[in-house]
Every structure is written in C-alpha cells, then in structure tokens.
Write a structure and sequence with these properties.
The chain is mostly beta strands and 328 residues long. It contains 1 helix and 26 strands. The two termini are 21 Å apart.
Length: 328
C-alpha cells in the first residue's frame, strides 16, 4: 500500500503563512496490508505540495507534485521516482510556462503549470503522462489543461501541450482526474467553469486518447443542468455539481463519479456516476427526510469544505468488472 500526502514541518505554529512556507510532501508504504508502515516527511527538502501518486514499472512509486527551486520562486511541476524504501529521486522538472507560454498566479505571486496528476503510459511503462494547469492571472482567463509525455528520469526538458483548443478544455486548481484502461485508453475528466458565468456550459468534461498526443473532442458528462433525474415536486430539477471528480475504467469504458445535489438542497446531497453508454445516474444520497430540520436549506449555507455525501473516489477490482466507490 502506497500513500502520499502534504504536511508542514513547522511545529507549534498555527500561522497558516508559516505552515504553508514549510510545506512538504511525504510518503508512506506498507508491505503487510497496512499493519506496519515506513514513512518519510519529505521526498524533497524543498517546498512541495499537492501530490499525485501512481505506480510505474515493476511497482515503483511515481509522485507528481509542484513547488519551487532554490534559484527560482516561480512554482512548477516536478516528478519523483522511488528508489527503494522511502527514498525518492528527482526524475523530471517541467517548464513553468504552459503550451501557450503563459504563467498563472497563486496567492498574488507568479506560478507555472501546476496542480499535477500523473498516469503511466499504457504502451511504455517507462514513460509518464503528466497533466497540469495554470491559475488564471488577475486579468487573464483560464487556459486549457496541459499534458506532457516524458521518459521518467530523462535529462531532456519536457514539453507541455494543450489537450484541446476547445474553450471547454480550460480548467484550473487541480479539479481533474485521469485513468487508463487495460487495453491502452487514457481518459481524463476536468471541471470547466464558463468565463461568462453561463452555467449551462459549465460542468465536467471528458476526453480520451490512445497515445496521449491526439485527444477526442471534449464531451460534457454533466454539470449545472436542468434534468428530470428525480422530478422533485413534479417538475424538472436543477442539477448542482461540486467539481470534485474521479475516474476509473471498467473494461474499456470510463466511469466518472462526482458529488452534488438536486435543486441545491441538503436533503438531496448525492453521488453521481456517469458513463458514455449509460449516461448519468444517482448512486448514493442522504437519508435526510425532506421538510425536517436543515434538509430544506440551500447546501451552500454550510461551512466551506465540510460538506457531506461528497469527495467520491472510484476504483476497479482486479477482475476488471467490479467497481467500488467510496465517499465522505
């Protein structure tokens, strides 16, 4: 069992600025089903954060994360490869500028193409597909999700490419996920928020590739839609989604999960599943009874990041048939 996480090495200090300054990426591994663990508080002594982990050739842990270098304060993406135990090698450093040569901004300072996620190439286990996006600058719009195909540990400088020139390929903040199928499909899903606040266009978009170079046109899985999924009160419903998303392949079909609500009510908090062949359905919801207590309140009244029936994660069994979805 492998896990990676973000932490601060500051002790006894509750100042969030200090905690963030001393932010690191840790890693832990268990070889006996979680009974005992070995861990490290930092895979790199430099400031790092927001890691994504996958397993490479022969089960080697591969971690994508972002941070700075001692000589350059512009945040960028890095790839690390396990070299035994809890030790890691800095394998690849990615350009700060995205495919269009743009930089973003984070907390008022310049940032590069960050919030990475990583998947191993289905056709070459020594190569990784790394995805990232920029945070929009004050006067700039979001830009397309970028991908880079790299040989893990190669000395050549990686190159970012946009997965699509479509307006709906724009995203930011790490609200995306990637998965691969047994036969080589690569699927990615991301949260697109329309720049003109057109909620009908906003939503979770999906694209596939067989090589990581050519991608299918983005398809909207779901988002802020008028839908007859429940027909509460005998009328059409407004589907509200959180932008929190995960993806896994069952056979050769992508399964996308996200959380949200119907008509923005506590009583309708639910987990959605979408597949290209079956469309959208609700697979889990609250046990609140409509009309009692807070269940009729708008769900945006709660404290941020403390929602319930949310943060879904999906995985597939070794038989490539059974699907498991866990959520908060």
């Amino acid at each position: 069992i492998h896990t990676t996480y973000m932490l601060s090495t500051s002790k006894g200090d509750n100042d969030t600025n200090v905690l963030s300054t001393n932010r690191k990426v840790g890693y832990a591994v268990s070889n006996d089903g979680g009974v005992t663990w070995k861990s490290t508080k930092q895979i790199d002594p430099n400031r790092r954060g927001f890691p994504w982990l996958t397993l490479g050739n022969e089960g080697v842990p591969i971690i994508a994360t972002h941070g700075t270098t001692p000589s350059d304060a512009v945040v960028r993406t890095f790839l690390y490869a396990g070299i035994g135990g809890t030790d890691f090698l800095a394998a690849n450093e990615f350009p700060a500028e995205n495919a269009n040569g743009s930089l973003g901004s984070t907390g008022g300072s310049a940032s590069g193409t960050i919030w990475p996620m990583v998947a191993i190439s289905p056709t070459d286990k020594n190569k990784a597909l790394v995805f990232g996006s920029i945070g929009p600058a004050t006067v700039a719009e979001r830009e397309a999700l970028n991908v880079s195909i790299v040989e893990i540990g190669a000395s050549t400088t990686p190159v970012w490419k946009s997965i699509s020139e479509s307006e709906t390929a724009k995203t930011s903040g790490g609200n995306y996920a990637v998965s691969t199928s047994k036969k080589g499909k690569i699927g990615v899903v991301w949260d697109y928020v329309d720049a003109n606040a057109n909620l009908e266009n906003s939503g979770l978009y999906f694209s596939e590739s067989s090589d990581g170079v050519k991608w299918s046109a983005p398809v909207k899985a779901f988002g802020f839609n008028i839908h007859n999924i429940t027909e509460e009160n005998g009328d059409e419903d407004t589907l509200n989604y959180d932008g929190i998303v995960d993806i896994a392949y069952v056979g050769e079909e992508a399964n996308i999960v996200s959380s949200g609500s119907i008509n923005n009510l506590y009583s309708s908090r639910c987990i959605f599943q979408w597949t290209p062949s079956r469309g959208l359905k609700i697979i889990a919801n609250t046990d609140l009874k409509s009309g009692l207590g807070i269940s009729r309140f708008a769900s945006n009244k709660n404290q941020p990041n403390t929602g319930f029936v949310c943060y879904p994660s999906v995985s597939v069994a070794d038989n490539n048939k059974n699907l498991m979805i866990a959520f908060q």
